[in-house]
Amino acid sequence: MVVVKVRIAPLEGNWSSQSGELLVSDENGIIFMASQPDLRLSSLAPLDSAVRRRLQQTRRYDGVPLDTVSLVPFDHRADGSRLVRFEQGPLSNAAYLARSRELPSLRWTVHMLKPLTSLESAQWQAGMLAAGLYGVVVLAGGIGWQRWRLRRERELFTERERQTLAEGQARVRGIIDRTRAGLLVLDDRASLAYLNPTAQAIFGHTPANVEGRLLTELLSPADARRVLALRQPQPSSAVEVLAVRPGGGLVPLELTISPLISPHGERWLATVFDISERKTQEQALARARDQLEQRVEERTRDLLDSNRRLSGEIDERRRAEAELRQAQDELIQAAKLAVLGQMAAGINHELNQPLAAIRAYAENARVFLDRGRTEAASGNLAQIVELTARMAEISAQLKQFSRKSGDSLTAVSAQASFGYALRLYRSRLTDACVAVTQDWPMEDIWVHADLVRLEQVLVNLIGNALQAMSETSSPRLDLSIVQENGWVRLGVRDHGPGIAEEHLGRVFEPFFTTKATGKGLGLGLSISARIVDDLGGHLEATNAADGGALFSVTLRASTPASPAAETSLPSADALSLREENRHA
Description:
The chain is of the alpha+beta class.
Protein backbone atom coordinates (compact mmCIF):
# COMPACT_ATOMS: atom_id res chain seq x y z
CA MET A 1 0.00 0.00 0.00
CA VAL A 2 1.29 3.44 -0.93
CA VAL A 3 0.23 6.48 1.10
CA VAL A 4 0.66 9.98 -0.34
CA LYS A 5 0.54 12.99 2.04
CA VAL A 6 -0.21 16.46 0.65
CA ARG A 7 0.37 19.69 2.66
CA ILE A 8 -2.88 21.67 2.80
CA ALA A 9 -1.59 24.51 5.02
CA PRO A 10 -1.08 26.92 2.05
CA LEU A 11 -4.62 26.22 0.86
CA GLU A 12 -6.07 26.85 4.32
CA GLY A 13 -4.00 30.03 4.57
CA ASN A 14 -5.83 31.40 1.53
CA TRP A 15 -9.16 30.51 3.12
CA SER A 16 -8.41 32.72 6.17
CA SER A 17 -8.80 35.82 3.97
CA GLN A 18 -12.45 34.97 3.34
CA SER A 19 -15.12 36.91 5.25
CA GLY A 20 -16.58 33.65 6.52
CA GLU A 21 -15.69 30.12 7.57
CA LEU A 22 -14.86 27.32 5.03
CA LEU A 23 -14.98 23.70 6.15
CA VAL A 24 -14.37 20.36 4.40
CA SER A 25 -15.69 17.19 6.07
CA ASP A 26 -15.40 13.50 5.13
CA GLU A 27 -18.14 10.91 4.83
CA ASN A 28 -18.18 10.56 8.69
CA GLY A 29 -18.76 14.28 9.23
CA ILE A 30 -15.20 14.83 10.52
CA ILE A 31 -13.69 18.23 9.60
CA PHE A 32 -10.16 17.71 8.21
CA MET A 33 -9.77 21.11 6.50
CA ALA A 34 -10.97 24.43 8.03
CA SER A 35 -10.22 28.12 7.79
CA GLN A 36 -10.53 28.17 11.61
CA PRO A 37 -7.72 25.97 13.07
CA ASP A 38 -9.71 25.26 16.25
CA LEU A 39 -12.37 23.46 14.20
CA ARG A 40 -9.90 21.11 12.50
CA LEU A 41 -10.20 17.37 13.41
CA SER A 42 -13.55 17.75 15.13
CA SER A 43 -16.91 16.13 14.35
CA LEU A 44 -19.99 17.98 13.09
CA ALA A 45 -22.20 15.40 14.84
CA PRO A 46 -21.69 12.89 17.67
CA LEU A 47 -19.91 9.70 16.47
CA ASP A 48 -21.29 6.31 17.46
CA SER A 49 -19.03 3.64 18.91
CA ALA A 50 -18.82 1.58 15.69
CA VAL A 51 -17.50 4.52 13.66
CA ARG A 52 -14.95 5.35 16.36
CA ARG A 53 -13.70 1.68 16.38
CA ARG A 54 -13.36 1.66 12.60
CA LEU A 55 -11.40 4.94 12.66
CA GLN A 56 -9.10 3.57 15.38
CA GLN A 57 -8.50 0.38 13.37
CA THR A 58 -7.69 2.28 10.17
CA ARG A 59 -5.64 4.82 12.13
CA ARG A 60 -6.98 7.54 9.82
CA TYR A 61 -6.90 10.15 12.60
CA ASP A 62 -4.52 8.33 14.89
CA GLY A 63 -4.34 9.74 18.44
CA VAL A 64 -6.90 12.54 17.86
CA PRO A 65 -9.88 12.70 20.32
CA LEU A 66 -12.26 13.96 17.56
CA ASP A 67 -14.35 16.31 19.78
CA THR A 68 -17.89 17.16 18.72
CA VAL A 69 -18.82 20.75 17.76
CA SER A 70 -22.45 19.90 16.72
CA LEU A 71 -23.40 22.17 13.82
CA VAL A 72 -27.19 22.49 14.40
CA PRO A 73 -29.58 24.21 11.91
CA PHE A 74 -32.33 26.37 13.42
CA ASP A 75 -33.93 27.73 10.19
CA HIS A 76 -34.20 26.73 6.49
CA ARG A 77 -34.51 29.26 3.67
CA ALA A 78 -36.26 28.91 0.30
CA ASP A 79 -33.00 29.17 -1.67
CA GLY A 80 -31.64 26.02 0.00
CA SER A 81 -29.43 27.78 2.56
CA ARG A 82 -29.74 27.27 6.27
CA LEU A 83 -29.24 29.29 9.45
CA VAL A 84 -27.00 27.32 11.79
CA ARG A 85 -24.96 27.66 14.98
CA PHE A 86 -22.32 25.62 16.79
CA GLU A 87 -23.39 24.11 20.15
CA GLN A 88 -19.74 23.67 21.27
CA GLY A 89 -16.38 25.03 20.26
CA PRO A 90 -14.87 28.47 19.69
CA LEU A 91 -17.66 29.60 17.28
CA SER A 92 -20.62 28.72 19.54
CA ASN A 93 -21.50 32.37 20.29
CA ALA A 94 -22.44 33.34 16.68
CA ALA A 95 -25.05 32.39 14.05
CA TYR A 96 -24.16 31.68 10.39
CA LEU A 97 -25.76 31.46 6.95
CA ALA A 98 -24.60 28.01 5.67
CA ARG A 99 -24.31 26.61 2.09
CA SER A 100 -23.03 23.07 1.42
CA ARG A 101 -21.73 21.36 -1.73
CA GLU A 102 -21.25 17.59 -2.04
CA LEU A 103 -18.14 16.13 -3.83
CA PRO A 104 -19.42 12.58 -4.66
CA SER A 105 -16.20 11.34 -6.18
CA LEU A 106 -14.25 12.09 -3.01
CA ARG A 107 -17.18 11.66 -0.60
CA TRP A 108 -16.38 15.07 0.83
CA THR A 109 -18.68 17.92 1.73
CA VAL A 110 -17.65 21.58 1.46
CA HIS A 111 -19.40 23.96 3.94
CA MET A 112 -19.37 27.74 3.52
CA LEU A 113 -20.47 29.64 6.70
CA LYS A 114 -21.17 33.34 6.46
CA PRO A 115 -21.63 35.21 9.82
CA LEU A 116 -25.04 36.83 10.10
CA THR A 117 -23.43 39.91 11.68
CA SER A 118 -21.61 40.79 8.45
CA LEU A 119 -24.77 40.19 6.42
CA GLU A 120 -26.81 42.35 8.75
CA SER A 121 -24.20 45.14 8.57
CA ALA A 122 -24.35 45.02 4.76
CA GLN A 123 -28.14 45.26 4.90
CA TRP A 124 -27.88 48.19 7.27
CA GLN A 125 -25.42 49.96 4.99
CA ALA A 126 -27.76 49.56 2.02
CA GLY A 127 -30.69 50.77 4.06
CA MET A 128 -28.77 53.76 5.39
CA LEU A 129 -27.69 54.73 1.86
CA ALA A 130 -31.28 54.64 0.63
CA ALA A 131 -32.45 56.56 3.69
CA GLY A 132 -29.71 59.19 3.10
CA LEU A 133 -30.85 59.78 -0.48
CA TYR A 134 -34.43 60.10 0.66
CA GLY A 135 -33.38 62.47 3.42
CA VAL A 136 -31.56 64.78 1.00
CA VAL A 137 -34.69 65.09 -1.08
CA VAL A 138 -36.85 65.74 1.96
CA LEU A 139 -34.33 68.24 3.38
CA ALA A 140 -34.28 70.27 0.21
CA GLY A 141 -38.07 70.55 0.23
CA GLY A 142 -38.12 71.28 3.96
CA ILE A 143 -35.60 74.10 3.69
CA GLY A 144 -37.74 75.90 1.14
CA TRP A 145 -40.86 75.48 3.20
CA GLN A 146 -39.04 76.50 6.39
CA ARG A 147 -37.78 79.76 4.89
CA TRP A 148 -41.30 80.70 3.90
CA ARG A 149 -42.69 79.73 7.35
CA LEU A 150 -39.99 81.72 9.20
CA ARG A 151 -40.74 84.83 7.27
CA ARG A 152 -44.44 84.45 8.03
CA GLU A 153 -43.84 83.75 11.72
CA ARG A 154 -41.52 86.75 12.03
CA GLU A 155 -44.31 89.02 10.86
CA LEU A 156 -46.81 87.40 13.26
CA PHE A 157 -44.32 87.55 16.15
CA THR A 158 -43.75 91.26 15.68
CA GLU A 159 -47.49 91.89 15.86
CA ARG A 160 -47.95 89.64 18.91
CA GLU A 161 -44.98 91.26 20.66
CA ARG A 162 -46.55 94.67 20.21
CA GLN A 163 -49.85 93.43 21.64
CA THR A 164 -48.15 91.57 24.50
CA LEU A 165 -46.17 94.61 25.49
CA ALA A 166 -49.31 96.69 25.70
CA GLU A 167 -51.11 93.98 27.69
CA GLY A 168 -48.09 93.59 30.01
CA GLN A 169 -47.94 97.27 30.71
CA ALA A 170 -51.63 97.29 31.51
CA ARG A 171 -51.26 94.20 33.72
CA VAL A 172 -48.30 95.66 35.59
CA ARG A 173 -50.17 98.89 36.07
CA GLY A 174 -53.13 96.94 37.45
CA ILE A 175 -50.88 94.94 39.80
CA ILE A 176 -49.20 98.09 41.04
CA ASP A 177 -52.55 99.78 41.59
CA ARG A 178 -54.07 96.78 43.42
CA THR A 179 -51.07 95.61 45.47
CA ARG A 180 -51.30 95.91 49.26
CA ALA A 181 -47.83 97.45 49.40
CA GLY A 182 -47.41 101.17 49.01
CA LEU A 183 -45.11 101.98 46.05
CA LEU A 184 -43.46 105.36 45.54
CA VAL A 185 -41.16 106.29 42.63
CA LEU A 186 -38.45 108.86 43.48
CA ASP A 187 -36.29 110.81 41.04
CA ASP A 188 -32.58 111.51 41.48
CA ARG A 189 -33.37 114.34 43.96
CA ALA A 190 -35.58 112.06 46.16
CA SER A 191 -38.69 113.89 44.97
CA LEU A 192 -41.91 111.96 44.60
CA ALA A 193 -42.76 111.14 40.98
CA TYR A 194 -45.49 108.51 41.47
CA LEU A 195 -47.67 107.03 44.26
CA ASN A 196 -49.84 103.96 43.76
CA PRO A 197 -53.36 103.92 45.30
CA THR A 198 -52.15 101.95 48.36
CA ALA A 199 -49.46 104.58 49.10
CA GLN A 200 -52.03 107.32 48.66
CA ALA A 201 -54.31 105.62 51.22
CA ILE A 202 -51.40 105.14 53.67
CA PHE A 203 -50.14 108.73 53.53
CA GLY A 204 -53.61 110.29 53.00
CA HIS A 205 -52.45 112.42 50.04
CA THR A 206 -53.45 112.54 46.38
CA PRO A 207 -50.76 112.48 43.67
CA ALA A 208 -51.48 116.14 42.87
CA ASN A 209 -50.67 117.18 46.46
CA VAL A 210 -47.34 115.34 46.77
CA GLU A 211 -45.78 115.22 43.30
CA GLY A 212 -42.48 117.06 43.33
CA ARG A 213 -42.28 117.07 47.16
CA LEU A 214 -39.49 115.30 49.04
CA LEU A 215 -40.19 111.98 50.70
CA THR A 216 -38.89 113.40 54.01
CA GLU A 217 -41.79 115.87 54.10
CA LEU A 218 -44.18 112.93 54.62
CA LEU A 219 -42.23 111.50 57.61
CA SER A 220 -41.91 112.49 61.25
CA PRO A 221 -39.11 115.01 62.07
CA ALA A 222 -36.88 112.37 63.64
CA ASP A 223 -37.24 109.98 60.72
CA ALA A 224 -36.85 112.90 58.26
CA ARG A 225 -33.50 113.79 59.82
CA ARG A 226 -32.39 110.17 59.48
CA VAL A 227 -33.29 110.19 55.79
CA LEU A 228 -31.67 113.62 55.22
CA ALA A 229 -28.46 112.35 56.82
CA LEU A 230 -28.17 109.95 53.94
CA ARG A 231 -28.08 113.01 51.50
CA GLN A 232 -29.50 110.75 48.78
CA PRO A 233 -31.51 107.54 48.65
CA GLN A 234 -29.47 104.36 48.96
CA PRO A 235 -30.40 100.67 48.80
CA SER A 236 -31.22 99.59 52.34
CA SER A 237 -32.93 96.91 54.32
CA ALA A 238 -36.37 97.49 55.75
CA VAL A 239 -36.48 100.24 58.40
CA GLU A 240 -39.35 101.37 60.56
CA VAL A 241 -40.50 105.00 60.26
CA LEU A 242 -43.52 107.12 61.25
CA ALA A 243 -45.57 108.77 58.48
CA VAL A 244 -47.46 112.02 59.20
CA ARG A 245 -50.95 112.24 57.75
CA PRO A 246 -52.62 115.57 56.83
CA GLY A 247 -54.59 115.60 60.12
CA GLY A 248 -51.39 115.07 62.17
CA GLY A 249 -51.91 111.36 62.81
CA LEU A 250 -48.88 109.08 62.90
CA VAL A 251 -48.80 105.77 61.05
CA PRO A 252 -45.95 103.22 61.67
CA LEU A 253 -44.50 102.06 58.37
CA GLU A 254 -41.83 99.66 57.14
CA LEU A 255 -39.77 101.45 54.45
CA THR A 256 -37.48 99.85 51.85
CA ILE A 257 -35.61 101.78 49.13
CA SER A 258 -34.07 100.07 46.10
CA PRO A 259 -32.79 101.30 42.68
CA LEU A 260 -35.20 101.17 39.76
CA ILE A 261 -34.14 100.70 36.14
CA SER A 262 -35.80 103.36 34.01
CA PRO A 263 -35.18 104.81 30.51
CA HIS A 264 -35.82 108.29 31.92
CA GLY A 265 -32.71 108.40 34.12
CA GLU A 266 -31.91 107.46 37.70
CA ARG A 267 -34.97 106.40 39.66
CA TRP A 268 -35.62 104.83 43.09
CA LEU A 269 -38.48 102.64 44.23
CA ALA A 270 -39.67 103.08 47.81
CA THR A 271 -41.88 100.31 49.25
CA VAL A 272 -43.94 100.98 52.38
CA PHE A 273 -46.11 98.65 54.48
CA ASP A 274 -48.57 99.68 57.17
CA ILE A 275 -47.40 97.83 60.31
CA SER A 276 -49.97 99.26 62.71
CA GLU A 277 -51.50 95.84 63.28
CA ARG A 278 -48.09 94.24 63.78
CA LYS A 279 -47.10 96.91 66.30
CA THR A 280 -50.33 96.29 68.18
CA GLN A 281 -49.61 92.56 68.22
CA GLU A 282 -46.01 93.15 69.33
CA GLN A 283 -47.22 95.29 72.22
CA ALA A 284 -49.77 92.62 73.16
CA LEU A 285 -47.04 89.96 72.87
CA ALA A 286 -44.71 92.02 75.06
CA ARG A 287 -47.43 92.35 77.70
CA ALA A 288 -48.12 88.62 77.49
CA ARG A 289 -44.39 87.90 77.79
CA ASP A 290 -44.13 90.11 80.87
CA GLN A 291 -47.15 88.37 82.39
CA LEU A 292 -45.68 84.97 81.54
CA GLU A 293 -42.35 85.87 83.10
CA GLN A 294 -44.17 87.05 86.21
CA ARG A 295 -46.18 83.81 86.34
CA VAL A 296 -43.05 81.74 85.79
CA GLU A 297 -41.34 83.57 88.63
CA GLU A 298 -44.33 83.01 90.90
CA ARG A 299 -44.56 79.38 89.85
CA THR A 300 -40.83 78.97 90.44
CA ARG A 301 -41.22 80.30 93.96
CA ASP A 302 -44.13 77.91 94.51
CA LEU A 303 -42.08 75.00 93.18
CA LEU A 304 -39.15 75.90 95.40
CA ASP A 305 -41.48 76.03 98.41
CA SER A 306 -43.03 72.72 97.34
CA ASN A 307 -39.58 71.17 96.91
CA ARG A 308 -38.56 72.30 100.38
CA ARG A 309 -41.78 70.89 101.84
CA LEU A 310 -41.33 67.68 99.84
CA SER A 311 -37.73 67.35 101.02
CA GLY A 312 -38.94 67.75 104.58
CA GLU A 313 -41.65 65.14 104.03
CA ILE A 314 -39.11 62.77 102.47
CA ASP A 315 -36.80 63.17 105.47
CA GLU A 316 -39.75 62.64 107.78
CA ARG A 317 -40.79 59.55 105.82
CA ARG A 318 -37.28 58.15 106.01
CA ARG A 319 -37.21 58.72 109.75
CA ALA A 320 -40.65 57.10 110.03
CA GLU A 321 -39.49 54.11 107.97
CA ALA A 322 -36.41 53.74 110.15
CA GLU A 323 -38.55 53.93 113.28
CA LEU A 324 -41.01 51.44 111.74
CA ARG A 325 -38.20 49.04 110.88
CA GLN A 326 -36.83 49.35 114.41
CA ALA A 327 -40.33 48.85 115.84
CA GLN A 328 -40.82 45.76 113.68
CA ASP A 329 -37.52 44.29 114.88
CA GLU A 330 -38.47 45.04 118.47
CA LEU A 331 -41.92 43.53 117.85
CA ILE A 332 -40.31 40.35 116.55
CA GLN A 333 -38.07 40.21 119.59
CA ALA A 334 -41.05 40.87 121.86
CA ALA A 335 -42.94 38.04 120.20
CA LYS A 336 -40.02 35.74 120.88
CA LEU A 337 -39.97 36.79 124.51
CA ALA A 338 -43.73 36.21 124.65
CA VAL A 339 -43.16 32.65 123.47
CA LEU A 340 -40.57 32.32 126.24
CA GLY A 341 -43.27 33.25 128.75
CA GLN A 342 -45.53 30.55 127.36
CA MET A 343 -42.74 27.98 127.70
CA ALA A 344 -41.74 29.08 131.22
CA ALA A 345 -44.05 26.60 132.97
CA GLY A 346 -42.78 23.61 131.00
CA ILE A 347 -39.14 24.59 131.35
CA ASN A 348 -39.64 25.21 135.10
CA HIS A 349 -41.01 21.68 135.35
CA GLU A 350 -37.97 20.27 133.53
CA LEU A 351 -35.56 22.24 135.76
CA ASN A 352 -37.31 21.29 139.04
CA GLN A 353 -36.87 17.59 138.41
CA PRO A 354 -33.05 17.75 137.89
CA LEU A 355 -32.68 20.11 140.87
CA ALA A 356 -34.56 17.70 143.18
CA ALA A 357 -32.45 14.80 141.91
CA ILE A 358 -29.21 16.78 142.37
CA ARG A 359 -30.16 17.54 145.99
CA ALA A 360 -30.91 13.88 146.67
CA TYR A 361 -27.67 12.71 144.99
CA ALA A 362 -25.65 15.33 146.93
CA GLU A 363 -27.09 14.28 150.29
CA ASN A 364 -26.43 10.64 149.50
CA ALA A 365 -22.88 11.41 148.42
CA ARG A 366 -22.19 13.14 151.76
CA VAL A 367 -23.51 10.12 153.63
CA PHE A 368 -21.37 7.80 151.50
CA LEU A 369 -18.29 9.92 152.16
CA ASP A 370 -18.94 9.86 155.89
CA ARG A 371 -19.15 6.09 155.68
CA GLY A 372 -16.04 5.89 153.51
CA ARG A 373 -17.85 4.53 150.45
CA THR A 374 -16.03 6.64 147.91
CA GLU A 375 -17.12 4.58 144.88
CA ALA A 376 -20.80 5.09 145.65
CA ALA A 377 -20.16 8.81 146.31
CA SER A 378 -18.33 9.06 142.96
CA GLY A 379 -21.35 7.49 141.15
CA ASN A 380 -23.67 10.05 142.71
CA LEU A 381 -21.39 12.88 141.65
CA ALA A 382 -21.42 11.54 138.06
CA GLN A 383 -25.22 11.59 138.09
CA ILE A 384 -25.10 15.18 139.37
CA VAL A 385 -22.77 16.13 136.42
CA GLU A 386 -25.20 14.65 133.88
CA LEU A 387 -28.13 16.45 135.48
CA THR A 388 -26.27 19.80 135.38
CA ALA A 389 -25.43 19.19 131.68
CA ARG A 390 -29.14 18.66 130.98
CA MET A 391 -30.00 21.88 132.84
CA ALA A 392 -27.28 23.74 130.85
CA GLU A 393 -28.79 22.41 127.60
CA ILE A 394 -32.24 23.74 128.58
CA SER A 395 -30.85 27.17 129.54
CA ALA A 396 -28.74 27.31 126.33
CA GLN A 397 -31.92 26.77 124.28
CA LEU A 398 -33.60 29.66 126.08
CA LYS A 399 -30.60 31.93 125.51
CA GLN A 400 -30.41 30.97 121.82
CA PHE A 401 -34.12 31.67 121.27
CA SER A 402 -34.09 35.05 123.08
CA ARG A 403 -31.13 36.59 121.22
CA LYS A 404 -31.62 38.83 118.12
CA SER A 405 -30.96 37.40 114.68
CA GLY A 406 -28.33 38.61 112.25
CA ASP A 407 -28.71 40.11 108.77
CA SER A 408 -26.51 37.63 106.85
CA LEU A 409 -28.06 34.46 105.38
CA THR A 410 -26.19 31.17 105.50
CA ALA A 411 -26.84 27.48 104.92
CA VAL A 412 -29.07 26.12 107.72
CA SER A 413 -30.03 22.49 108.36
CA ALA A 414 -33.82 22.09 108.11
CA GLN A 415 -33.80 18.95 110.30
CA ALA A 416 -31.72 20.71 113.03
CA SER A 417 -34.16 23.66 113.03
CA PHE A 418 -37.11 21.31 113.52
CA GLY A 419 -35.13 19.50 116.26
CA TYR A 420 -34.52 22.74 118.15
CA ALA A 421 -38.21 23.68 118.04
CA LEU A 422 -39.22 20.22 119.22
CA ARG A 423 -36.77 20.42 122.16
CA LEU A 424 -38.36 23.70 123.27
CA TYR A 425 -41.81 22.08 123.27
CA ARG A 426 -40.67 18.68 124.60
CA SER A 427 -42.46 19.15 127.92
CA ARG A 428 -45.75 20.29 126.32
CA LEU A 429 -45.60 17.50 123.74
CA THR A 430 -45.09 14.94 126.49
CA ASP A 431 -47.79 16.35 128.79
CA ALA A 432 -50.37 16.58 125.96
CA CYS A 433 -49.46 13.10 124.63
CA VAL A 434 -48.93 14.51 121.13
CA ALA A 435 -47.73 11.98 118.55
CA VAL A 436 -45.06 13.56 116.32
CA THR A 437 -44.36 12.12 112.84
CA GLN A 438 -41.24 13.23 110.97
CA ASP A 439 -41.23 12.80 107.17
CA TRP A 440 -37.78 13.68 105.81
CA PRO A 441 -34.65 11.89 104.54
CA MET A 442 -31.79 10.79 106.75
CA GLU A 443 -29.22 13.14 105.19
CA ASP A 444 -29.36 16.84 106.07
CA ILE A 445 -31.32 19.19 103.78
CA TRP A 446 -29.95 22.75 103.78
CA VAL A 447 -31.83 25.99 103.14
CA HIS A 448 -30.62 29.56 102.54
CA ALA A 449 -31.82 31.34 105.70
CA ASP A 450 -30.92 32.78 109.10
CA LEU A 451 -30.75 30.16 111.87
CA VAL A 452 -32.44 32.17 114.63
CA ARG A 453 -35.25 33.57 112.45
CA LEU A 454 -36.03 30.18 110.86
CA GLU A 455 -36.19 28.52 114.30
CA GLN A 456 -38.49 31.32 115.51
CA VAL A 457 -40.88 30.67 112.59
CA LEU A 458 -40.95 26.92 113.28
CA VAL A 459 -41.48 27.53 117.03
CA ASN A 460 -44.46 29.81 116.23
CA LEU A 461 -45.99 27.29 113.81
CA ILE A 462 -45.56 24.33 116.20
CA GLY A 463 -46.91 26.40 119.11
CA ASN A 464 -50.01 27.33 117.07
CA ALA A 465 -50.47 23.67 116.10
CA LEU A 466 -50.36 22.60 119.78
CA GLN A 467 -52.92 25.26 120.71
CA ALA A 468 -55.18 24.17 117.82
CA MET A 469 -55.10 20.53 119.11
CA SER A 470 -55.65 21.45 122.78
CA GLU A 471 -59.16 19.92 122.69
CA THR A 472 -58.34 17.02 120.33
CA SER A 473 -58.62 13.55 121.84
CA SER A 474 -55.76 12.03 119.83
CA PRO A 475 -53.48 14.91 118.89
CA ARG A 476 -50.88 14.29 116.17
CA LEU A 477 -48.29 16.66 114.70
CA ASP A 478 -46.96 15.93 111.18
CA LEU A 479 -43.63 17.52 110.22
CA SER A 480 -42.25 17.17 106.68
CA ILE A 481 -39.34 18.35 104.50
CA VAL A 482 -39.53 18.10 100.69
CA GLN A 483 -36.82 19.30 98.27
CA GLU A 484 -37.56 19.86 94.55
CA ASN A 485 -36.37 22.17 91.73
CA GLY A 486 -33.92 24.10 93.93
CA TRP A 487 -36.51 24.85 96.67
CA VAL A 488 -37.22 23.26 100.04
CA ARG A 489 -40.73 23.11 101.52
CA LEU A 490 -41.07 22.69 105.32
CA GLY A 491 -44.55 21.53 106.40
CA VAL A 492 -46.21 21.77 109.84
CA ARG A 493 -49.63 20.07 109.99
CA ASP A 494 -51.92 19.58 112.95
CA HIS A 495 -54.99 17.33 113.27
CA GLY A 496 -57.19 19.93 114.88
CA PRO A 497 -60.39 21.60 113.61
CA GLY A 498 -58.56 23.48 110.81
CA ILE A 499 -59.03 27.12 109.70
CA ALA A 500 -62.40 28.50 108.73
CA GLU A 501 -62.63 29.28 105.00
CA GLU A 502 -63.50 32.94 105.67
CA HIS A 503 -60.37 33.26 107.84
CA LEU A 504 -57.84 31.72 105.42
CA GLY A 505 -57.20 35.03 103.67
CA ARG A 506 -56.64 36.90 106.96
CA VAL A 507 -54.52 34.59 109.09
CA PHE A 508 -51.34 36.56 108.25
CA GLU A 509 -52.85 39.96 109.06
CA PRO A 510 -51.42 41.68 112.18
CA PHE A 511 -53.57 41.39 115.33
CA PHE A 512 -55.98 38.94 113.69
CA THR A 513 -56.71 36.01 116.03
CA THR A 514 -59.52 33.56 116.72
CA LYS A 515 -58.27 32.80 120.24
CA ALA A 516 -60.06 33.93 123.36
CA THR A 517 -59.20 37.27 124.93
CA GLY A 518 -55.87 37.13 126.73
CA LYS A 519 -54.71 34.02 124.84
CA GLY A 520 -52.70 35.88 122.21
CA LEU A 521 -52.19 39.13 120.30
CA GLY A 522 -52.51 37.73 116.75
CA LEU A 523 -48.92 38.68 115.82
CA GLY A 524 -47.25 35.26 115.58
CA LEU A 525 -48.29 34.36 112.01
CA SER A 526 -47.92 37.96 110.80
CA ILE A 527 -44.35 38.12 112.14
CA SER A 528 -43.58 34.65 110.73
CA ALA A 529 -44.79 35.66 107.25
CA ARG A 530 -42.66 38.80 107.40
CA ILE A 531 -39.58 36.76 108.44
CA VAL A 532 -40.06 34.24 105.60
CA ASP A 533 -40.44 37.08 103.07
CA ASP A 534 -37.18 38.61 104.34
CA LEU A 535 -35.51 35.21 103.87
CA GLY A 536 -36.54 35.18 100.20
CA GLY A 537 -39.32 32.60 100.54
CA HIS A 538 -43.05 32.52 101.21
CA LEU A 539 -45.40 31.15 103.88
CA GLU A 540 -48.87 29.80 103.04
CA ALA A 541 -51.72 28.29 105.01
CA THR A 542 -54.21 25.67 103.77
CA ASN A 543 -56.59 23.09 105.15
CA ALA A 544 -55.71 19.41 104.74
CA ALA A 545 -58.19 17.22 102.87
CA ASP A 546 -58.80 14.94 105.89
CA GLY A 547 -58.90 17.75 108.46
CA GLY A 548 -56.46 20.00 110.23
CA ALA A 549 -54.42 23.01 109.14
CA LEU A 550 -51.21 22.83 107.06
CA PHE A 551 -48.60 25.62 107.08
CA SER A 552 -45.86 25.42 104.41
CA VAL A 553 -42.58 27.38 104.51
CA THR A 554 -40.83 27.44 101.10
CA LEU A 555 -37.16 28.53 101.03
CA ARG A 556 -34.35 28.35 98.47
CA ALA A 557 -32.12 25.27 98.77
CA SER A 558 -28.44 25.68 99.73
CA THR A 559 -25.25 23.60 99.91
CA PRO A 560 -22.88 24.50 102.76
CA ALA A 561 -19.10 24.26 102.38
CA SER A 562 -18.80 22.64 105.82
CA PRO A 563 -22.05 20.97 106.89
CA ALA A 564 -20.74 20.28 110.40
CA ALA A 565 -20.31 23.99 111.03
CA GLU A 566 -23.95 24.72 110.06
CA THR A 567 -25.70 22.61 112.70
CA SER A 568 -27.98 24.12 115.31
CA LEU A 569 -26.04 26.10 117.92
CA PRO A 570 -27.94 24.91 121.03
CA SER A 571 -27.17 21.24 120.31
CA ALA A 572 -23.46 21.97 119.77
CA ASP A 573 -23.28 24.02 123.00
CA ALA A 574 -25.02 21.27 124.94
CA LEU A 575 -22.71 18.56 123.60
CA SER A 576 -19.55 20.59 124.25
CA LEU A 577 -20.75 21.41 127.76
CA ARG A 578 -21.53 17.75 128.44
CA GLU A 579 -18.06 16.69 127.18
CA GLU A 580 -16.35 19.29 129.39
CA ASN A 581 -18.30 18.04 132.47
CA ARG A 582 -17.39 14.47 131.66
CA HIS A 583 -13.67 15.34 131.38
CA ALA A 584 -13.95 17.35 134.63
